[in-house]
Amino acid sequence: MKPIIKYPRQEYLARFSGETIDIGEVINSKIPVKASIQVDTLTHHTLVVGSTGSGKTHTVSIIVNELVRKTSKYKVLIIDWHGEYMKLINRAEYLEPRRMPLNIIEHNNIYEFIELLQDSLGLTPPQVYILEKIFENKKYMINNIYDLRNVLENIEDQGSWFRESRLSLLRKISPLTRDGLREVFDAYKDKIIDYINICENPIIIDASRIQDPYIRRIYVSILLKKIFKEAVKRKVWSRNKLLVVLEEAHNVLGRNNYIGIVARMLSEIRKFGVGLVIVSQSPSQLVDEAMLNTNTKIIHSIKSLNDLEVISKSLYLPLNIEKIIPYLDVGEAVLYTRGLKKPVIIKVKEI
Ligand SMILES: Nc1ncnc2c1ncn2[C@@H]1O[C@H](COP(=O)(O)OP(=O)(O)OP(=O)(O)O)[C@@H](O)[C@H]1O
User: Fold this and answer.
1) Which protein family is it in (predicted)?
2) I need a surface site. Which of 3, 23, 321, 351 has the fewest CB within 10 A?
């Protein structure tokens, strides 16, 4: 049973510059005040955490809807892990992954592709070696994942270690070539960047349509890599910014299973106008970069001691706020963002 909790009388000391979006109200403040986030802060990344059912998806939807209502400066892409956003986002463009297929083998970026497979499929050094040798050999014309599978099936073994590693590599790659995935991983050219640029409304990519979470993770990682690389290479979102919502972020930014290229880009990507909203149930499972590189933090109710400890340490939370976090009601959260002197407890508004 929830104990009776006395919320502290809150002093709201804020100094914002530029445009802001309102996401709710400060609870128990001396005078009624809106809980706001500076629009410019969004490219400095946002972390939204909380136990299941605490209100994360709802809060992210409010941020997106308010942002789109307030300014046309941002494009929005939601990578929807569980397919929860469609009904919550105003005027969203909804896409299944097979309508946004990815060209996963890019010859000018082959080592990055191998690294990404290494992280997402858990490849061993011999398996990485085999992939490098295959791609370095001009004899093989590999344009898609099916060509790669063919080469792996037919390449001559150079000893027993090679055979063993080749076969287990084949077992890891084969799920990507299953029926129904051809449209997802076999694009001649990626359409995602052009689509983001022409689309006026928030885009939701419903990753949950890829049923196997192992393959979903690979799709999401490759999608993020494409967006980040494009931002760095062409500075496409330097003026028109892009907000990317990454649900269930521990799947690609998990402490023990992160995708290296995505984690590394967290600190860099803001310079190129891309802001991430990292959403997860468990902050303690996330790589340190996710805590360090997020300027805005929204913490819904958290029950686990490990998670509480990570949050308290990174925000220097005062004890009277820290001890309330496990008992916050659905939709209530601790907000800390640039422009606020100290974290405040808020009630996120209804949709
Ligand atoms: N601020 C709010 N005002 C009113 N209702 C809310 C608010 N926040 C969340 N809810 C309701 O609480 C329920 C759970 O919210 P939500 O799905 O956002 O939680 P969650 O943390 O994303 O859960 P999960 O981790 O399971 O996806 C939903 O029915 C939602 O409509």
Assistant:
1) Belongs to the HerA family.
2) 3
